[in-house]
C-alpha cells in the first residue's frame, strides 16, 4: 500500500507541475533564446571586424552609439523613470570608470594564448545560455550570473584588439547587448508576448 501511495502521490505532483503551452507560445519562448544567440553572434562579428580592421574606429563607435541611443530611449520610455538625473549620473559613472579601467582590463589576459581565449569566451557565452533570463520563472535562472559570464567572455576577447579605444567600445557594446538589451526585451515580452517574433525578424 505504501508503494502504491507513493506512486500515486508522484503522479499527482507531476500533473500539478505540468504546464501546457500552445504552439505560438512555444515559438515566442524559443525566439527569446534565438535573440540571445543573435546578440552573441553580433558581438563576435563586431569583434572580428575590429580585429581584422574591416571597419574603422569611427564607424564602430557610430554603430555602438546608435544602438545605445535607440535601446536607452526605448528603455526609458518603457520604465518611465521619475528622476532622469539618476540615470544620467549612472551613465557618466559607467563611462568614466569604464574608460579609465580599459587599459587594465585589456591587458588582463595578454599572457594567455589566443586559442585558449577563444575557447574560454565560447564556454562562458555557452554557459550564459543556461542561466540567462528568458522572462520565465525557473530554478536555474540567474540574471546576475548570466550577465557576469557574458562580460567575462567580453573581457577575454578585448585583450586581442590593438587599441584601448576599440577595447572600450567592445566593453560598452557588451554592456548594451548582455545587460540592458535583455531587460528591455523581457519588459516588451511581458507586455506583449508576440514582440519577440518581431524582434527576431529584425535582428536576423
Contiguous uncertain segments of 5+ residues: none
Tally of helical runs:
8
Termini separation (Å)? Answer: 57 Å
Give the helix level as a range of percent. Answer: over 70%
The beta-strand count equals: 0
Radius of gyration: 21 Å
Query: In what range is the share of β-strand residues?
Result: under 5%
What series of H and E elements makes up the topology? Answer: HHHHHHHH
For the sheet with most strands, the description reads: none
Count up the domains: 1
Average pLDDT, rounded to a whole number, is 80
What structural category characterises the helix and strand content?
mainly alpha
Shape: globular
Q: What does this protein structure show overall?
A:
The chain is an all-alpha fold. The chain has one domain (29-202). Helix content is 79%, strand content 0%. It contains eight helices and no strands. Helix 6 packs antiparallel against helix 7. The longest helix has 29 residues, at 23-51. The radius of gyration is 21 Å and the shape is globular.
Amino acid at each position: 500500500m505504501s508503494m502504491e501511495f507513493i506512486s500515486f502521490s508522484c503522479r499527482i505532483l507531476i500533473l500539478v507541475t505540468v504546464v501546457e503551452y500552445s504552439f505560438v507560445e512555444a515559438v515566442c519562448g524559443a525566439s527569446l533564446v534565438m535573440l540571445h544567440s543573435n546578440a552573441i553572434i553580433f558581438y563576435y562579428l563586431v569583434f572580428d571586424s575590429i580585429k581584422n580592421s574591416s571597419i574603422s574606429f569611427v564607424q564602430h563607435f557610430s554603430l555602438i552609439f546608435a544602438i545605445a541611443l535607440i535601446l536607452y530611449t526605448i528603455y526609458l520610455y518603457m520604465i518611465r523613470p521619475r528622476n532622469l538625473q539618476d540615470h544620467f549620473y549612472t551613465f557618466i559613472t559607467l563611462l568614466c570608470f569604464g574608460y579609465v579601467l580599459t587599459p587594465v582590463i585589456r591587458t588582463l589576459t595578454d599572457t594567455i594564448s589566443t586559442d585558449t581565449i577563444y575557447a574560454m569566451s565560447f564556454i562562458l557565452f555557452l554557459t550564459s545560455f543556461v542561466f540567462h533570463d528568458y522572462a520565465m520563472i525557473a530554478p536555474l535562472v540567474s540574471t546576475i550570473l548570466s550577465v557576469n559570464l557574458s562580460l567575462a567572455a567580453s573581457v577575454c576577447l578585448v585583450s586581442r584588439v590593438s587599441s584601448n579605444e576599440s577595447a572600450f567600445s567592445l566593453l560598452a557594446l557588451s554592456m548594451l547587448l548582455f545587460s540592458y538589451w535583455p531587460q528591455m526585451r523581457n519588459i516588451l515580452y511581458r507586455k506583449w508576448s508576440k514582440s519577440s517574433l518581431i524582434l527576431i525578424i529584425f535582428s536576423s
